[in-house]
Design a protein that fits this description.
The protein is an alpha/beta fold. The protein is built from 9 helices and 14 strands. The strands form 2 sheets. The protein has a 7-stranded mixed β-sheet. Helix 8 (192-204) packs across helix 9 (222-235).
Amino acid sequence: MASCEFYTLFSGSSGNSVFIRHGEDAILVDAGKNAKAVEGALAALGSGLRAVKAIFVTHEHSDHVAALPVISRRYGIPIHLLSETALEMKELPESAVLHEGLFTEQVGSIRVDAFYTPHDSARSVGYVVSCGCHRFGIATDMGVITKNVVEALAGCDCAMIESNYDEEMLANGPYPACLKARIASSRGHLSNKNGALLAAILAHAGTERIVLGHLSAENNDPEIALRAAAEELCRRGLCAELAVADRHHPTCIFAEKNT
């Protein structure tokens, strides 16, 4: 059986990227920060950008796409994104592959299915990535929990979801009122409270491992986010392995080696 691995390279307001490898096939979802940071994180996992066969973009905000133009020029990796997203990017990567609406893409033994997420971008998507018998879900940057997101993620072995801010920290923090309102809106980000609710919904659907991602550096704390999710699962009598994606370093979500 081919090895199957699912990592976040880094996750937060300063940059986001997910790495999935199945045997000889590997993909990225998003590539924020810069190409050097992405390459360094991959090297820590024994890989590199030359091993990546495709990159999938969730939306056009810089913390998800900043590294893409350089990566495209240097490596020519196909970069899949929606046409609405492409129109809003400051620099469209040379190797961009544009899609009209939701799409499914096969990259060797890896299948990627897009689904919509509610966020204040031209158009935002999450992905379900299937590798052999395993399914991994990725859904961050969303202001509310929607039916289609739950349907997409339900039944995944592992899921990375958003737990962006603590409501009290955001309310009492230094951000201007307009930015606080944007973050807390239905097209902003999920609070710890709503992230915990989504974690409970997925645990009820059988998801065994849930990683909380895209935590705000200013308005959240990993311990607070983790505690909120754990308490919600406990209150509902549910079980799932919980973790928080590191803001700067790779976090293992799932790893099954060759057998």
